[in-house]
Amino acid sequence: xxxxxxxxxxxxxxxxxxxxxxxxxxxxxxxxxxxxxxxxxxxxxxxxxxxxxxxxxxxxxxxxxxxxxxxxxxxxxxxxxxxxxxxxxxxxxxxxxxxxxxxxxxxxxxxxxxxxxxxxxxxxxxxxxxxxxxxxxxxxxxxxxxxxxxxxxxxxxxxxxxxxxxxxxxxxxxxxxxxxxxxxxxxxxxxxxxxxxxxxxxxxxxxxxxxxxxxxxxxxxxx
Length: 223
Prior knowledge:
Distance between the termini: 55 Å
Number of helices: 2
Structural class: mainly beta
Radius of gyration: 20 Å
Largest sheet: 7 strands, mixed
Number of strands: 17
Order of helices and strands: EEHEHEEEEEEEEEEEEEE
Shape: globular
Strand content: 35-45%
Number of domains: 1
Helix content: under 10%
């Protein structure tokens, strides 16, 4: 290939997973490469940790759509007006490394029904623990974003919360929209990030209702 300046190269608008980019390793003073897929993994993981969902697609679901149930879309923020009055069964997209999907509660979910998030066939949650908080600051107060600690068994609950233990054999998360006092007020979020093919890491951002007590059922299981 003839020598060209970077500005003379053909511009791409998308890249295949196996395409590579040059990376300068300043610590080793070497030039290396990274695949587009691995770069996407890093980018979405930062979004998962921070809640900065820039460039994710948006889908909006009303309460009826949530009650009917649907499959979430990868790399998408779903704004869901589920109020907890009727049971909801949500299915996660295929767990492909680097993919992120977010379920944001855009209604006050306190109708006492259950919402479930189930992985696709033969896929699971990564073994992890979440150390949840109870702040009791006031309605709509957003708590700390709680990230599932993969491969770490936390044992001491802090901030008045509880340890939620997720086994690597679990494929369903069930959350009850407890009446009066819960953490699924407007703005609460459940985020799912795939670090390795076939498994999901979970993050939870609470939004207080009443005392902000943890919902009566917030647990994973194998189904």
